[in-house]
């Protein structure tokens, strides 16, 4: 695994727990953790259970005893590492968004297509797809339970940056992160919409805004990557992104990705309205899926809250007896399970780098639309 920030911790839980929860066809060995600083990398490796550490990712991906490379670094390094790892014959799991630009994402998708010819697999870490309630939502749409999709309402609202004095982080630096609320959290909402509906977004009209333009630097780097330095740093990305989109079927979708939703901590939400019913899911109540059956007797209609904790629900076979909750970290185990199984049977795991590229094209189209006064823009 290359990188050891927040996502390094989360992915480590996945690599460690998946083999205990699911009968995997191959056993992952947490061989090496790579980071720039020897001491902090060693401390993280000890805490999370990696056998060795390195400060040189090129040396690590050249090793014969490495089969999988997991990339959890900021977006500005994804393309270089992923392309090199695929060329070295390693299967690659890469954090979202796939890259910082469409050009980089195209390069990565091309490298993945070439590598797939020799059985090398790659996948993007849109982990929320693997929250059981979100997977069930996709299954129910595919089974026709809400009929034809007419409209989607999706968003990702947070407030950890609502305070204008919250410190500067790499997530607010365009060179490192590519974009702000749009790419960091909006990308999840876009992927979720495309995953659940099975449809791509074809055109968008949006607006990006940077509300807080400067933030304090910190004495030391902390938390979600607080940037070390003195004085104040310039925010070079959006902190609010609002856009409308058209789906392949012609249905419309609206999206919001914001750091200023005071009181909303991690509200990744999606509501899909169809001609036979509707489905609603919110990460802040992640074990519940709400289903409205418009074909039911009018006198008994209403949203039903399905607690997605039954053994027959997606991924639940690996965990607890019926009715026992799952949390944020379980999605990372489900991601490892699906990735390792796909590698073992020689199948293309999803989301592929092509799917990651599709999200990247949407991000790019929203930015272009915003620059053109919210003009409708082809993806
Ligand atoms: C920070 O905004 C962040 O941790 C994102 O980087 C993640 O992708 C999202 O899942 C939660 O918020």
Characterise the protein shown here.
By secondary structure, the protein is an alpha/beta fold. It has a domain at 6-128: Rossmann fold, CATH 3.40.50.720. It has helices at residues 6-21, 38-48, 57-61, 78-87, 102-116, 132-142, 174-177, 181-197, 330-345, 353-371; strands at residues 32-34, 52-54, 68-71, 91-95, 122-125, 149-157, 201-209, 214-216, 232-234, 240-247, 252-258, 267-274, 277-282, 288-293, 304-307, 377-378. The strands form 4 sheets. It has a 9-stranded mixed sheet. A 3-stranded parallel sheet has the order 3-4-5, with helices on both faces. The longest helix has 19 residues, at 353-371. The two termini are 32 Å apart. The mean pLDDT is 97. Bound molecules: alpha-L-sorbopyranose. Alpha-L-sorbopyranose binds next to α8.
Oligomer: single chain
The CATH architecture of the domain at 6-128: 3-Layer(aba) Sandwich
Report low-confidence residues grouped into runs of 5 or more: none
What structural class do you assign from the helix and strand content?
alpha/beta
Instruction: Output the helix-strand order.
Output: HEHEHEHEHEHEHHEEEEEEEEEHHE
Tally of helical runs: 10
Spatially, the strands of the biggest sheet line up as 15-14-13-12-6-11-10-7-16
CATH class of the domain at 6-128: Alpha Beta
- Superfamily (CATH H level) name of the domain at 6-128: NAD(P)-binding Rossmann-like Domain
Bound ligands, named by name, code or SMILES: alpha-L-sorbopyranose
């Amino acid at each position: 695994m290359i990188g050891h920030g927040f996502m390094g911790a989360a992915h480590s839980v996945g690599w460690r727990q998946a083999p205990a929860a699911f009968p995997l066809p191959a056993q992952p060995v947490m061989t090496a953790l790579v980071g720039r600083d020897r001491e902090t990398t060693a401390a993280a490796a000890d805490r999370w259970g990696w056998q060795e550490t390195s400060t040189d990712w090129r040396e690590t991906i050249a090793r014969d005893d490495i089969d999988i490379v997991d990339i959890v670094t900021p977006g500005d390094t994804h393309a270089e590492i992923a392309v090199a790892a695929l060329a070295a014959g390693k299967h690659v799991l890469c954090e979202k968004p796939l890259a910082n630009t469409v050009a980089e994402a195209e390069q990565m998708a091309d490298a993945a297509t070439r590598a797939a010819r020799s059985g090398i697999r790659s996948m993007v870490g849109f982990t929320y797809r693997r929250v059981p309630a979100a997977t069930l939502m996709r299954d129910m749409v595919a089974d026709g339970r809400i009929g034809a999709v007419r409209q989607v309402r999706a968003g990702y609202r947070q407030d950890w940056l609502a305070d204008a004095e919250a410190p500067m982080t790499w997530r607010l630096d365009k060179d490192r992160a590519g974009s702000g609320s749009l790419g960091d959290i909006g990308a999840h909402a876009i992927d979720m919409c495309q995953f659940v509906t099975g449809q791509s977004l074809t055109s968008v009209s949006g607006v990006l805004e940077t509300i807080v333009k400067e933030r304090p630097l910190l004495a030391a780097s902390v938390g979600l990557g607080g940037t070390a330095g003195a004085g104040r740093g310039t925010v070079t990305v959006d902190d609010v992104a609002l856009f409308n989109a058209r789906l392949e079927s012609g249905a419309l979708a609206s999206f919001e990705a914001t750091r200023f939703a005071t009181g909303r901590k991690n509200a990744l939400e999606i509501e899909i309205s169809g001609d036979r019913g509707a489905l609603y899911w919110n990460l802040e109540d992640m074990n519940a899926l709400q289903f409205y059956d418009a074909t039911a007797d009018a006198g008994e209609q209403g949203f039903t809250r399905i607690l997605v904790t039954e053994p027959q629900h997606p991924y639940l076979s690996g965990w607890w007896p019926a009715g026992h909750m799952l949390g944020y970290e379980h999605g990372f185990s489900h991601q490892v399970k699906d990735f390792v199984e796909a590698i073992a049977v020689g199948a293309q795991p999803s989301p592929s780098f092509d799917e990651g590229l599709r999200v990247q094209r949407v991000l790019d189209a929203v930015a272009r639309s915003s620059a053109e006064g919210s003009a409708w823009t082809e993806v």
